[in-house]
Amino acid sequence: MQSQPISVERINLRASVEAKQIIEQAAQLIGTNLSAFMLNQSYEAAIRIINQHQAWVLGNADRDALLNALENPREPSQPLRDLMALAK
Predict the structure, then answer these.
(1) Fewest beta carbons within 10 Å, which of 15, 18, 35, 67?
(2) Distance between alpha carbon 24 and the CA centroid of its chain, in Å?
(3) How far apart are CA 50 and CA 41, in angstroms?
(4) C-alpha span between 70 and 62 (Å, rounded)
(5) What integer is the mean pLDDT of 45-53?
(6) What pLDDT band is residue 74 in, cutting at 50, 70 and 90?
């Protein structure tokens, strides 16, 4: 049997009366408490947002163009050569 990780961090926030009531109602509807509901919903949203910003979803044409550019890079332009020479 796996045990739950011990919660050691605290998150404090203020909400309007209406927002708190709505969130409490939603938590009750799924049979959990306010803190567990808020943490779970926030955690899931954070994971979704992070994944959206870390992953690229390309269509076929864009994927093909990217792969082609990686497999057949263009010759560097003179301004790029000049810039790279500064890094030496």
Answers:
(1) 18
(2) 26
(3) 14
(4) 12
(5) 94
(6) very high
pLDDT digits (tens, 9 = 90+) for 3-21: 667 788 999 999 999 999 9
- How far, CA to CA in Å, does 20 sit from each of 35, 49, 73? 11, 23, 55
Each domain of the chain, given as residue ranges in start order, spans 17-86
pTM score of the predicted model: 0.58
Measure the CA–CA gap between 9 and 43, rounded to whole angstroms. Answer: 14
Specify whether the CB–CB gap between 75 and 64 falls below 8 A: no
DSSP string, 6-68: PP---------HHHHHHHHHHHHHTT--HHHHHHHHHHHHHHHHHHHHH-----HHHHHHHHH
User: For residues 30 and 25, what is the distance between their CA atoms, to the nearest angstrom?
Assistant: 9
